[in-house]
Model the fold of this input.
Amino acid sequence: MNIRKEDVSKAVKKAIDEVQIIDLHTHIFDLRFKDLLLWGIDDLLTYHYLIAEVMRFSDMPYDEFWKMTKTEQANFIWKKLFIENSPISEAARGVVTVLKSVGLDPAIRDLESYRKFFASKKVDEYVDLVFKIAKIKYVIMTNDPFVEDERKIWIKNEKGDARFKSALRIDPLLVKWSSSYLKLKEWGYNVEEKLTEKTFSEIKRFLVDWIDRMNPVYMAASLPPEFKVPADTETALIIENAIIPVSYERNVPFAMMIGAKRLSNPQLKLAGDSVGKADINTIEYMARMYPHNKFLITMLSKENQHELVVAARKFRNIHIFGCWWFLNNPSVVDEITRERMEMLGLSFTPQHSDARVLDQLIYKWDHSKKVIEKVLTDKYSDILEDGWTVTDDEIKRDVEKLFGGEFEEFLKRKF
Ligand code: HDL
Ligand code: ZN
Done:
């Protein structure tokens, strides 16, 4: 039955509290991948976001930090970001949210007792617990065949976990061709550095082999701010001559994650990447030139967001997703989600977690759901103000679309 204006907020909260989430992009792994799956307090504390943040409170030489053990790094981060300073940054707040959500008391601030709790957990039970708390239907992993530790597991062809779907991540193919072509040769693909027709067809064979092995939901690559197509670059030529045809033929969308400036500060290692504004003309060119291909797009620069929404309005074969990385902060998630809803309605996916540590699924979704709930409540209130009506079931339907349902519809469409 129709919701009264004064009950909208409660109805939206209930729907968002209960929705089973499809998480489009993560860096977590199912149990086949053993230690590649990070979890527990020390992995949470040594998240690269917190490493970048802790170094701002210290003049410790970078290599001294890197020489510390994970426990020593975690102790240092705990002391600096949680004890000597209040944990008000999004990544620090996230650790507090996880502690509370798994039943620990953040107020006692007793790192050793937290360690004891996590040490008592069996990883398979803890995966179940985190998925239950965070209400995750399934996650999509980031699976890179160029990472030897990962490749050797895929080659074994063991049975996976249906809650962990795969994404074929191909950055090295696109942004490091001068070294990656040697790996392909080693693996039996008859490529040469020069991008000949033969090399393109062997790159396509490599992609098809890994699509058959991984059954990925999509192929993905993180691309720099200067990424351009068309262009006489290896990146652009491999995309147009290999990725695009295979993506269409195998109905595996191509996800472009654009704007990461790798190793801006190399001394921070994984924490050293920054951001740059990219060229929206490239996105529009690809969607226009390849109208039968499907593109998942997320961009890292806040300055790209408004034009990305406009591009998505023009091209139905673009599905935008997530408030990625440096955008995954409440103030920015609020702004971006509002402009997306105002221009796209429900035809996009507001968030992905990008979780690198299993437990982060809890906080990244808890924090994002709170923001999305506020925005969606305002949007329903606006239309009710104008005399529209909405029922509980319709709110539940709309929320399911936003948390992965529309993404699954996009995957089924044939343009
Ligand atoms: O390239 C990516 O998928 C990024 O998400 C990087 O992994 C980055 O280090 C990250 O974890 N961002 O949240
Ligand atoms: Zn990521």
The chain has 18 helices and ten strands. The beta strands are 21-23, 136-140, 164-165, 167-169, 218-223, 254-258, 260-261, 274-275, 295-299, 318-320.
